[in-house]
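User: Sequence in, structure out. Go.
Assistant: Echoing your sequence, followed by the structure tokens.
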Amino acid sequence: MQIIETINDAIAGRRTRFTFELLPPLKGDGMHKIFEAIDPLMEFDPGYINVTYHREDVKYVEKPGGLLERRIVRRRPGTVGTAGAIMKRYGVEVVPHLICGGLTRYDIEDALIDLDLLGINNVLAMRGDNLRGEHTFSAHPDGHAHACDLVRQIADMNNGVFIDREVDECHHSQFCIGVAGYPEKHAEAPNMEQDLRHLKAKVDAGASYIVTQMSFDNRRILDFIDACRRIGITVPIVPGIKPFSTRAQLSLLPQIFHVDLPEALVAEVLKCKDNKAVREVGIEWAIAQARELKAAGLPVLHFYTMGKTDNMVKIARAVF
């Protein structure tokens, strides 16, 4: 089932669906931690589960004599396998992420073929982050520099068009393509107007829906949706919510994700004596945020869990 059908069914039924995101296991780990994170959330009937994709990382290994050798490694491979394992175990739709960073067009084509063979018909297309240590994004020489181009490749494959045009008659994939939007502007965009134009280009290239970067301020989310509608973006928009969980996130989240934290949230976190108390503040904030967005008629609420779901059980029970 395509995710756009899940979203449209929720709109037609005036029901807000619950979805969440997980990371694939670290290299060397199995699926048990993933299943342990998912099991408590199945009672809330998730509409789908996202599985992130992590690009290569840089590792420095000391050689005899003290010289450092730079190596490229992947710490969390297995997005396709993780998505397939989740779908097989739970019978729930999965949305694996696919990125431009570190991948050739042929790598992407092969991943899409694997997903299609597994019966996975959904993908979230993103550019991805910079390689660690790089100040700007560097695409693979035979890859894509922008998510818009990745969306076009997926849409082309849906139409039976492969990279080298070597296939004449073929089975057509049916990928529903999601893309990312930024209520507080992408960090590299010069202004919100340009960022919205880039977002519209991704939709025009074939995206069926948008999921937003995390935001802790519903006013920004709703203003972003209004701004999208004003420039002609008509596809559904799914807001992303991240339950706040540690005091360190006061600086980490703005630094890594380029989001603002509302002063009321910051003030409550600063009152906390330990991270256990911070986690409770995060739960209450996410509940209030989700209830308000649900009341506003949003068809799906998407939660960024980072693999920890004990707080999500409390949030889901209070909202869904």
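User: And one key feature?
Assistant: The radius of gyration is 20 Å.
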